[in-house]
Design goal:
The strands form 4 sheets. This protein has a 7-stranded mixed sheet with strand order 6-7-8-5-11-14-15, sandwiched between helices. Helix content is about 25%, strand content about 15%. The protein has one domain. It is α/β, with parallel strands linked by helices. The protein is globular and about 55 Å long. The relative contact order is 0.20. α6 runs parallel beside α7. The N and C termini lie far apart (about 45 Å). The protein contains 9 helices and 15 strands. Bound molecules: 2-acetamido-2-deoxy-beta-D-glucopyranose (6 copies). The site of one 2-acetamido-2-deoxy-beta-D-glucopyranose has 5 residues, from loops. It is a single-pass membrane protein. It is found in: Membrane. One of its GO terms (cellular component) is Golgi apparatus.
Length: about 425
């Protein structure tokens, strides 16, 4: 099984809705740059604003508990009135003539299949955009500021190759200041640890594409992309047993759930997705996706000594157009779309809603135990980046790979770099909270 090429099998089954040409009304607000008074608390962190974590769907903002004004209102005292909030996840992509901030020659950490320039991607415009929230300016990612924020800390990335894609973007963005040394515990490529000596900062990757205990039952299966057994109520201790000491844990999952799967609960088969077995009910992707997050969050909430913050990095949609992933579908756009030109819907919407709902439940349980949960809501920003994928430039033309046109991962440098700007803003807020407490 290639961990590289997750194959969105379901694309075969569901009609892919065109992302473009659907409109929804939205009145974008342009507010002035908001400088929060919190910055006086820092010497090394020049700019900070409180982050209102709501989704662009605005499900029920009273439940989020992520707004610094709400969650620390009592501690904030006099600061309370002066802090404004900005939802950094609602916005538009705007030109950034300064980008990119690294290249495939300055950064060695780009995974081959995301090194789009190496494989001859002809256009470079996709690298030259930055995310601008509707209500504030997103500060540029300064590596030294990131390092100061995470000095003496550790971050774990738990998920699939898109999580690794995110981690490699971070390593490349930081590479202007320092490279890490490989501090991996063993030689397993799926579990890497990187250590930045100057800052006593550790990054770790934990491979867990389904977040729960899973096994490949058949490397072919009905769609020839593997058939996986998922134990939806069982922790994947490859990561759950390892993360207790981490300060920040970033959880994500996505495209592996589009492969055929058989679902187990309490050790018994309860259903499947596209397993093509007459005696097993097809419960669909979302059944498993929701329960996988439930179980992952339950594992974290069960850790006695966990003092860290858990981030849900939300689903990043794929962008196959003109056909299904295995029927000539491709992503050949060279520009982002505007928020009013696209809409989250169909399976993307269902998966997003599931993870958000499970997150809210976990957050409520966690709060009683002193566990912190936050959302890095990348879904809308990435929905607007059909131009950011490798397409056919993730390998040489003659290479026979499963996902020939890769519209799932993200070229580096590219729009996934913005995830680390989100991360930095959120980490600054976390540090701000602990200072204020
Ligand atoms: C939001 O959640 C609160 C608490 O569960 C509930 O009382 C309120 O009715 C909800 N609001 C909406 C708009 O769903
Ligand atoms: C970097 O990209 C260039 C094309 O811009 C390519 O010629 C070169 O082989 C790539 N280098 C590496 C190390 O990937
Ligand atoms: C490095 O950070 C760890 C926590 O991640 C801490 O226990 C340790 O004391 C730090 N070491 C130094 C030399 O600061
Ligand atoms: C379904 O039927 C197959 C044989 O056709 C059998 O091997 C399998 O155990 C059955 N599964 C369940 C859940 O009954
Ligand atoms: C979308 O918004 C842009 C401005 O951001 C505007 O120029 C364009 O006309 C809008 N398109 C639609 C279909 O509303
Ligand atoms: C590519 O690989 C698949 C299976 O791995 C095989 O069926 C197919 O014939 C191969 N195509 C080419 C052009 O080699």
């Amino acid at each position: 099984m290639s961990q590289e090429l997750q194959t969105p099998t379901a694309m075969k089954l569901q009609s892919l809705e065109t992302l473009i040409g659907k409109y929804f009304s939205k009145a974008p607000k342009r507010a002035a740059l908001l400088l929060s008074s919190i910055l006086i608390l820092f010497t090394v962190i020049p700019l900070s604003f409180s982050i209102k974590i709501s989704s662009f769907l605005l499900i029920n903002s009273s439940l989020w508990g992520n707004n610094i004004r709400d969650s620390t209102a009592n501690d904030l005292g006099a600061f309370k009135e002066t802090i404004r909030s900005c939802d950094i996840f609602r916005g538009e992509w705007v030109p950034d003539p300064k980008a990119p901030y690294y290249t495939n020659t300055t950064c060695w950490a780009i995974h081959d299949h995301q090194n789009c320039m190496k494989y001859g991607r002809p256009d470079t415009g996709f690298m030259k955009w930055k995310w601008r929230p509707d209500e504030c300016e997103m500060p540029e990612f300064h590596p030294s500021e990131f390092f100061e924020t995470v000095r003496g800390k550790s971050i774990a990335f738990v998920g699939d190759s898109v999580a690794r894609n995110h981690m490699q973007s971070l390593i490349c963005l930081l590479s202007r200041v320092e490279y890490p040394v490989d501090a991996s515990i063993d030689s397993d490529e799926r579990f890497r640890r990187w250590f930045y000596a100057t800052y006593n900062f550790t990054i770790a990757a934990f491979w867990s594409p389904y977040l729960v205990k899973s096994m490949e039952a058949d490397h072919l299966g009905p769609a020839l992309t593997g058939l996986f057994d998922l134990h939806l109520d069982t922790f994947d201790d490859d990561w759950t047993a390892q993360i207790e000491g981490f300060d920040y844990v970033i959880i994500s999952a996505g495209h592996w759930f589009f492969r055929p799967m058989v679902f187990y609960e309490q050790g018994k088969v309860v259903g499947c997705y596209y397993c093509k077995q007459k005696n097993i009910t097809d419960l669909g992707i979302n059944y498993a996706y929701r329960r996988a997050f439930r179980t992952a969050f339950k594992a974290i909430n069960g850790l006695q000594n966990f003092k860290g913050t858990t981030f849900l990095r939300t689903f990043a949609p794929a962008h196959f157009e003109g056909g299904l992933w295995n029927q000539g579908g491709n992503c050949i756009r060279t520009k982002p779309v505007k928020s009013n030109e696209t809409k989250l819907e169909g399976m993307n919407m269902e998966l997003y809603m599931s993870q958000i709902e499970e997150f809210r439940d976990a957050e409520r349980v966690g709060r009683e135990r002193g566990h912190k949960f936050r959302v890095i809501d990348t879904t809308q920003a990435m929905l607007m980046r059909p131009d950011g994928h490798p397409s056919r430039f993730g390998h040489w033309p003659h290479e026979n790979v499963t996902l020939y046109n890769d519209c799932v991962h993200w070229c580096l440098p590219g729009p996934i770099d913005s995830w680390n700007s989100f991360l930095l803003e959120m980490l600054k807020t976390e540090v701000g909270r602990s200072v204020l407490r």
